[in-house]
Structures are given as structure tokens and as C-alpha cells.
Amino acid sequence: MNPAWGWPVAFAIFAAGLGAGAYLVSAAALYLWKGRWEKVARVGVYLSGPAIALAALVFILDLGRPDRALNVYSNPLSVMSVGAWLLTATSVLAIIHGALLWTGRTARRLYALGSPLAFGTAMYTGFLMGILLPKGLWYTPALPWLFLASSLSTGLAAVGLLGLEDGVMKRLEGDHALLLVLELALVALYLATTGFPGALITGPLAFLFLGGVLVLGILVPLLYSLYALRTEALNRAALTGTFALVLLGGFLLRYSILMGGQL
Amino acid sequence: MVYAILMDTTKCTGCRGCQVACKSWYELPPEKTSLTASWTNPPDLSSNTWTHVRLVEMGEGEGLRWTFYRWACMHCDDPACARVCPTKAINKFAEGPVVIDQSRCVGCRYCIQACPFQIPRRDPEAGIVYKCTMCPDRITQGEKPNCVETCPTGALEFGEKDEMRAKARERAAKVGGYVYGEKEVGGTSTLIVTVEPPEALGLPKVPMETSAKWVTDMLASSLGLGMPVALALGAAYYLKERREIK
After folding, report:
1. What is the model's pTM?
2. Chain A partners of B115 at a C-beta cutoff of 8 Å?
3. Which residue of chain A is at minimal alpha-carbon distance from B224?
4. Residue A171: closest C-alpha in chain B
5. In this predicted complex, what is the ipTM?
6. What single-letter DSSP state applies at residue A13?
7. DSSP 8-state assignment for residue A212
8. Chain A residues closer than 8 Å to B224 by CB
């Protein structure tokens, strides 16, 4: 039997996570990272709305009957319905937030509303898959948190890829490393709690998961960041390269888990 | 009144009458199949084949044994498909049937992912999902589902659920076998009596808890994980900031 969900679903989960992660990185830049990176906050918000809207569009086009897409708002007990509401609300709010920033307003208070929505958007896909006991590889409480960690790291990487001043880029290295450590820990927790880690470690997806997700997507960028933290100079090309690797790893993470559960 | 279908594999001759009766009642198009080593044909359920007869052979030579059985939607008491459906297209009738409303279905395939028995199938052309209905249009008129109506050997029976359960247990005790569907996923409206263990027939190994339980358990334990994750992140952030300030 063909897998019921293919790469477009993996891509949409990735894009929704990236957008939500960018929004949360923006909030963190403004509040936790002491306002010193207003540029990061701006770029994060500009990126999040379109990324989440793109995810919603891909989800809709992947339906068998996209013309009936409005029906998916109907069941408040279904994670997919809740997700449809989250994608709608978060993308609309992030686009409004972006427009306000564009016109020069700060709109800081919007974060109080947008951040919980962004957490929901980043994590609901983990619940969507994680509650399905018949899919042993997905059925673990760690999945929503793993997706959140990956959303944050891909959100930061996407903001970084758009290019910022040297000083800001240099400061991003530390946060980048922190998020990658978190993601690495959650990958470990995920593998320890899923009933069928073999699908990712020894099965046909092992190459993508171990090589693409773990080595290229997490370990190489992490080791580079740890190395770069010890130097004063900024190697823009190298840092940008690791951001691109994190994005690749973020997509492959969703793809390998999505496919692995349907083997 | 809750109804159930009783499938007694010890009485099934593999005539495929139920398979054809289903096609006929719902005017489902034929399926292009090919000759294979297996008697089971079509080899699997599809959006146009909602029920089919399976043959499973076990052992060799003198020890050769075989079992025929009708395979279709089990009509769970607490259907995971209906629980996850975002459109409320899937409904559990009080009488037992679990039915997809094809006029609401958007073809998201979440039900396909959630079904522990791997029953729902998507029609590649129509884009939406189909499966056995247990013929609610017939049973609300006092008729049996068409597959049961057609069965010439009494392998398929239809009736009040408690009565079917009692019959299934009695029959299983007599042949020294099993009843599949009585406790699986908290109970279903299909009871399969088999001499061989259910795994040997390729019947899916499913949890004995209802989908309500396994879904809410996972939601709860996921949210419970939030506290340690948040604490770990907070601690890491604090250490990093302290290092930067130095």
C-alpha cells in the first residue's frame, strides 16, 4: 500500500514549524535577548506569516478535494481541525504583525497573542501524528517537543539565512548552538521513547535519518557553532552554510519520521 | 438496538458471495486483477472493494490447514477514524455502523492513518475515502447487510449484538478457538470466530483499549513532558547568558 501521506505533507509540517519557529525566535530576540536585535525580531515576523500560509496552502492542495477545504474546521476534538484553526489564526496574526512593523509601529503587545499561537502551530503536527497508536514510530509523547525544537532551530536558521549585520550574525552563533543541543537531546528522547526506532536507525530510512538529520542537520552545524564561539571573527559563508544545513535537516526530520511510520 | 455481524470462519467455504453482494448493492465497479498464487482476489481491499474473502494457508503436507474469512470494516464501538476526522464526515450510528459521509469527506487520509485495522481506502480519482458501511440503509429497514443476506452457509450472521456475542463465544468454546473483535480496541460490531489464533490469519494485532484511551493518554503524557523540557531549556539559556555576560 502506498503511504497515505507523502512528501508534500512533510514539507507542510516543516514550513509551518519554520514559520512558527521564526515568530518565536523574533519574540525571544525582543524579550529574552534584551532588544539588542530588533532586526532579528523584524525578519522573524516578516518570515513567519508567509511560511505558515504556504504550509496551509500545501496542506489544502494535498487534500483529495481541495474545494471542500473549509470542512476541516468542523471537529474540535480532531487535532487536524485544531491545527487548521491554528494555521489560520497564526498566519493571519503574523501577517498583520508584519504589516504593523512595516509601517514603523512596534506592536510588541501582539507577541502575547502570537507566541502561544506559534507554539501551537509548531507543536500540533507532533500531536497530530503522535496520538496514532497504530503508527508505532509516531506514538510517543516526545514527538510534539521534538517538532518544537526543530521549529525553533529552523526558524532561527531561516532568519539567519536572510542575512543580518555582522555583529548580529556573530551573536546568533550561540543561540544556534543552544537550540541544536536542545534538538539533539529531543532526538535522543524521541528515539528512546518510540516503540520502533529501528525504522529510522537500521531500516531503509537510516541513510536519510542518520546522515541527513543527525550528522548534516544537527551535528555538523553544532560542532561548527561551538568552534566559531571560540573565535572573534565572523565567517559569514560558513555560518550561512550551517543555516542551510539546518533547514535541510529540519525537512528530512519530518520526512523520515512521516515515511518511517508508514513503512 | 446495537447490532453486530458474526463471521464464523469454520462455516465459510470461500464462495465470495458476500464480496459480490457488496459490489452489487453499492454498484461498485469491478477491479482489474491478475492470477496469482493466492486464492484471495482482489488481493486487498480498495476504494471499490469494501469487503473481500481471504484464504490463509498454514502448515504443509499432512499438516496443511486453511481458513477462509470475510474481511471488511470492523465497525469499532469507539472508532478512531471518526475521532480524528476533521470534517465530522465519519459517524458512528447507535445501531453499530461506522459510516463515511462522502459528501463531506475532503480526502485528508487522517482516518487511514488512525484505523488500527487498515480499512479505509482513498479513491485516487475521486480523491475521497471509502469503506464498508454495514448497510445502514438496509438495517434501518429491518434487513440484514447485503453480505450477510447473501451468505449461503450461515458463516455470516447478523443480529442484536449481545445475542451475536453469546453465539460467538459458544461457537468458539465448541471448536476450541477464538473470538476476534469482542475485546479488540474496546469492542467492535464484528465478531470473527476462528480456530487458528487471530495472528495466524493475519488479523491485525491491536490494543485492547479504546481509541479514546490511547489518544487522551498520549495527549496527557505529551503535555506532562512539557515541564521538564521547559526547565531544561530555561537552565541552558541561563547558563549561556551567564557565560556571555562574563
Report:
1. 0.95
2. 134
3. A141
4. B244
5. 0.94
6. H
7. I
8. 141
